[in-house]
Protein 1
Amino acid sequence: MRAQFVLSEIGVGLRRNLTMTFAVIVSVALSLALFGGSLLMREQVSTMKGYWYDKVNVSIFLCNKVDAESDPACVKGAATEDQKKQIKADLEKMRVVQSVQFETSDEAYKHYKEQFGKSPIAGSLTPDQMQESFRVKLKDPSQYKVISSAFSQRPGVQVVQDQKTLLENLFNLLNGMNLAALGVMGLMLVVALMLIVNTVRVSAFSRRRETGIMRLVGASSIYIQIPFIMEAAFAGLLGAGFACVLLVCGQYFLVNNWLTHHVDVIQFIGWDAVLAKLPLVLAIGLLMPALAAFVALRKYLKV
């Protein structure tokens, strides 16, 4: 009988404050969707770092005939065969070096055509314009400066480039986007909490006579508060459910059916990462409104 009464009171409260309840559901859904998206974005960045940092090389680009005419670093002319052999021998002696791979101009041209074949300038390039290079795999990528200081001023060397530096710009951009999403999520969370408190306050005020009678007949405080807390928890759970739907749809439509077909160079997270976040989103959606309602009732449910 008591359970039936509590459930009936929950239904009454939701019907009386239908508009505000809907606003709570929407705000909770958006804030938790942003929260889940931020967690997934952070995991995506970590996955990308682990994948790409394991593949990054230090590239030593050599001067060619074209560079000798236009680049100040190549004023002594294109790299000779003796210079190439000496650079390779010195690299193989260094303890920080794991492996050394030489890429010819023909190989560089082939790789360029594979990656940028649709570029307007791709048709105007010839293999002799591409630079030969040494691709150096380091045991510790942070030791890049050792290679740079040893080879950047060598005759025949145009530039020593650390690919990790290029990736850092991408990761910094992704981390910035993640922080922006967290900021919007925090704002939406504050809005959701304010709506929950106001909804509970209005509901408690509209039923002050009933709660007064319950108090007079000896009902405990927790028994009086349960319907209000469960109303907020129910609305929050619905919002969390919609947030889970948004996350699942984002993974299915945005990642699996679009990004994976258009962006081949990124290893995207899978369904296991998304499904692992859904219970956390549901738990927060259930507990956060219930706790906010409990705190609000201590102040507004005084009869």
Protein 2
Amino acid sequence: MSDISAFAGPGTRDGRVPPVLVTTVRRLFVPTGPDTLRCRLRYTLDDPYAVALDLFVDPVTDLRVTWVVSRELLDRGTRGASGVGDFRVRPVGDRYGTAGALRLTLLRPEGRVCLETGLSGVRRWLDATYALVPAGHESRLLDWDALEVALLGRGGRSA
């Protein structure tokens, strides 16, 4: 499978933009519709625990479906099966047993979609997100006061 990817990164704390990966995913087990879709993986410092996968379902209008998943879940899925529920990810081998692709399974009540893309491109992109925000340091970027206001509807700390 050919992985045509554009990678912007790696991104640093000195004002550079966090990494974005634009790649092509191949749809599996679908008798109708396009064989491939454009996919964009995004990481932001506003939500350091998550990554967003934008699937562009209509190339003319840029209509897209976005899935937001745990960065750690996607990372684990590049090494072995990961995820339960509506998002599952795992590396898949070629006929020689080499893990060369990453399979993403999206489950909805209406059905499921299985996609594959190049493993190495996603792995490099994830490495760039960890260079920007190392694992275990995500909570340092959270605005805890704003989170308290959003969750509890009140500001400030109690004495």
Protein 3
Amino acid sequence: MTIENPLPDAFIDSQVKLALLEDIGQADLTANLIPIDAVSNATLITREDATICGMQWFERVFKQLDASISLSWKAQDGDRVKANTVICELHGPARALLTGERTAMNFLQTLSGTATLSSIYSDAVAGLPVKVLDTRKTLPGWRVAQKYAVKCGGCFNHRVGLYDGILIKENHIMAAGSISNAINQAKALSAGVPIEVEVENFSELEQALASGVDIIMLDNFGIDDLKQAVAINQGRAELEASGNITLDNIRRVAETGVDRISVGALTKDIKAIDLSLRFS
């Protein structure tokens, strides 16, 4: 599977450089026990079923340590692999391979964890005309990387940050005085940018629809209320279900007819994939 990585090489390199500095400090004291001219082969495997993400981070760790290290990938970002699958084979100076092992796997196991959970949520709504979206509940400094991982898992991105879309929530409405005031101000200041408003009841839904907003987030609506909101909407705005979405209920939520479902767990509740780098 080929999925475009939106991050420029320089950004990934900077993340890797910082991570290596954090781990190595002044020197890898243990790797220095190995003869400087020792050369090794290593095989990266996954110990569990996973959706792979993070190849470029993994590779750049070793390239920054020693450009002579060669990597042969057996899987690509977005690929679903079974437990005990060989993902990559490496060859090069033993010291550099040992020094980069943990940092490289930290990137790959974390991003693969996000991609794997996203693939599970994507599968849960298979066959239904709905998009499962991430949120801004991401690891600081990892936002765009995690959102790339979400796409590798088959889900979709909400706005990346505060700069590429307007989401009017409860506190914005309170500060603006009303839903209509907030929406009208948004239209005046940010022409062409998608405008979304969060509503908590049917009265607020009617106000949002009357204001001509693009997207309406239905916050913590129950299944029956979601169905009613879809009937009231009649296709005038995109409807997004949000709040307390789990694997147990996401398909029932999708079956109500909403267009989008946002799930903070995709990037917030991370379980790293169990990887192993075996030397020979």
Protein 4
Amino acid sequence: MKRELFAIGDVHGQITLFKQMLTNWNEETQQLLLIGDLGDRGENPKDCILLAQSLVEKKDAIYLKGNHEDMLLAFLNHPEQNYDLYCLNGGMKTLETFLHPGLDAEYSPTEIVMLLTSRYPALKPFLESLPLYYEWGRFLFVHAGVDLSKRDWHQTSSEDYVWIRDAFHEMKNTTGKIIVFGHTITPFLYGDNQTTDLWIKDNKIGIDGGAVYGGALHGVLFNEKELVRDIKLDNKGYVWDGLT
């Protein structure tokens, strides 16, 4: 186990910020961890997902499953049933960067999946292999959170690991772990819709600064005992407008 861990918050297609953040990672001494939601919305989701896959396969990075990976898998498994929900949550941007713009006017959801899986056959098995959480020393890393109503947090459902929000944020953390999570942007956690700093409360650390919305991407360095450093990259480039 490496002496330190470098965790990167929700990237959501922001390839320029993602690459810039990676320049702060020391692969010799730091375990790299991606908190999930690499695709959907943003500048170039395909490049973010494929770069993350390469980092896992070549650099032993840990890539946690997020709710957007969950939605992509649901679409790949049942395209007709899940197409509308996936597109509503930024999935069309992912599909267009993997294939081409305007594909929704040319192909049915089933045909889109056939094209995607034929051109990128390793994508679906890779997404299916993503872990739901990672324990490291006194820290627990997870995309959305855990079910704190359970006597043992390991009993959290696979859905809650990637989707839970208020029930996790508001319930007291008695796990004995410091829980590092993404999923819910820190401006929402702060309640002011503008503060993009890390959210730290009750041994919980929220690291999704809402980069894709014009907020910030966080890269957070930990040793086995504590948070050592937060690198915050404010988004001064591409901002997702919900349309393009």
